[in-house]
Amino acid sequence: MYKILRKEILSANIKLMEIFAPKVAQKAAPGQFIILRIDEQGERIPLTIADFNAEKGTITMIFQEVGKTTSQLGTMKVGDSIRDFLGPLGIPMHIKNYGRVVCVGGGVGVAPLYPQARALKQAGNEIISIIGARSKSILFWEDEIHKVSDKSYITTDDGSYGHHGFVSDILKRLLEEKERIDRIIAIGPIPMMRVLCELTKPYNVPTFVSLNSIMVDGTGMCGCCRVTIGDEVKFTCVDGPDFDGHKVNFKELNARMKRFVPEEKEAMELFRKRSSCICQ
Amino acid sequence: MPIDDNKKTPGTAKKINYIREKMPVQDPSKRKNNFEEVALGYNEETAKKEASRCIQCKTAPCKNGCPVEIDIPAFIKLVAEGKYDESIKKIKEKNNLPAICGRVCPQETQCESLCTLGKKGEPIAIGRLERFAADYEAANVPSNETKISPSTPAPKVAVIGSGPAGLTCAADLKRMGYNVKIFESLHASGGVLRYGIPEFRLPKSILDREVKYINTLGVEIEYNMIIGRVATIKELMQEYKAVFIGSGAGLPYFLNIPGENLNGVYSANEFLTRVNLMKAYKFPQFDTPAAMGKRVGVVGGGNVAMDSARVALRLGAEEVYIIYRRSEEELPARKEEVEHAHEEGIKFKLLTNPIKIIGDSEGNIKEIECQQMELGEPDASGRKRPVVIKDSEFTIPMDTVIIAIGQGPNPLIPQTTSELSIGKHGNIVTNEKTGETSIPGVFAGGDVATGAATVIKAMGAGKIAAKSIDKYLH
Ligand code: FES
After folding, report:
1. What is the four-CA torsion angle of B344, B349, B351, B357, rounded to 10 degrees?
2. Domain encompassing residue A52
3. Protein residue closest via CA to atom 3 of ligand 1
């Protein structure tokens, strides 16, 4: 059992949890993720690592409530325990001094972006960060990102804060202004990563994305998480989650994310019904 | 090997009975709608009858066919005499997982294939008797297995993976007096026995029982421990005097044909893991889905293919096809499993080779394109090689395709252990006779060393490694 030590509500449906998992924390590195299972009936879902603290023995995750499992997780309180917690999974990001790195985060993608930006900064890179959200109320970790960046931009789709528009607008401007960029890290919703990769490709700037495929075991055993990278099939859980964004087949990835939509809906409805019964 | 056909136990002049006791099974029309066990097992009467058929021949060729060297005639004799609890003790001298082996071992190609009676009639149903003895014990004999207290300064050994190889190795080491800990990456024990073999062939309660037995011996299992990531082999070696790697064949092979990543295409590993480990057959009480259409094609002809097809049927598929490129004779699955599949209404598209999976604009499967094959000259494996019949392409409408063409060794430990010598199939290279790897103190066995094989072979490898570890630590 893995205890929840801290919970923060970052916005209506985005929550932060710090979990006591000393062995995972000992080994966690930027770019990695965990798989958890809430209880005996639970499914196994991957969540990215937003932060880790080997001394305290904790892993921090930020997640958006999108389905049954994340919604159920969101109802859990400090002191509650998660049944299973496996990690750290995936290949850690390769950290070195590339020069100037642009770190782009959209939505909850800002969470896994943070440890990557921090590590790159520590390795001597100049960090330009661009983080975006639909609206100001759901933007989080602005300060954290700011602290590890030499320069940072904020965008909101509705214009409630920062630049009115998308993260890609800012990146486009930087590229057009012929700013020297040595590497781009882009983490966020699939459509965002896809747009960014299409944008940077003509400029030949290495662009790395972090994929969030559907998973079961997370150990390379089932192939559920397979993605097409160039002309090769890779397993996100053991070969990723970071991939060369210019090679990712986003169309296929996008379709594969919808594999269980009807079942996810059914599970969600059942969960809503049950939790409203408990409330009354 | 000389087989002494006619020798009977001196003094017994009774006539040899060449016909084995039938195994009672759940009715096919009923069982295809449930996940309960198909084969129901012998009762005392039928077990005794079957065991009494054994002529106790001196040569006991059956023993040579058992990878874990069970004293087969001895345990059968005890069953015939009604001494069931002694009989299971005899088995457990060599085999820690008898209720499992009795169910899933391919006895027909091992011990039973060598049985003297088999020369003129039906061999003794050794597997069924093994199962009977194990089940009898579970139902009737209170467990008095005492924890083997770790003689405190006993060296510590780490076992990676709680599948058949790991469980066997750990139990044997424990009996030798070592401090043994198993590291399991999933949230439950058993490896392929849990995620691969369906409930109707191996009820999970039986697996739990066998694992509990190994626990009572004093073997601890730590779950959610993914070796290679949370700790490397090198790091384990700082705390443990020896390491056994039994991480299994967790790498699904695909056909590498167009359309394989369409929605609706599963690897058998994924499909079975969702259903068996995650209990998708109880969705939505359990959260994991295993979405499936009405028309399901399973590509492959082994036990895993049969399991996938029969699971699909039980989840409500209307038509389930086995798509296999050779003929029925070459099906690598156990005969019994093929028969069961036939009885349940699985359709066999034989001499059929898939070349393309075709989807719609949403990325969902629509149909599978295949070629008709015919059998040519035998290939290196001795089986007739399937050859394409020209211009024989045709398509079959499908909602779901399950690829069950085999698995390779799980790559995680090979990838994260640079000193480990790795074979060309990604397997850990071992000395087959000892289980030694290229790193002193590190042993390996089971599917991670040999590629996908059988449960009992993995158990045999676990046993061999336990012996070598004992030698190494002395
Ligand atoms: S999640 Fe099963 S192989 Fe990646």
Report:
1. -130
2. 2-89
3. A220
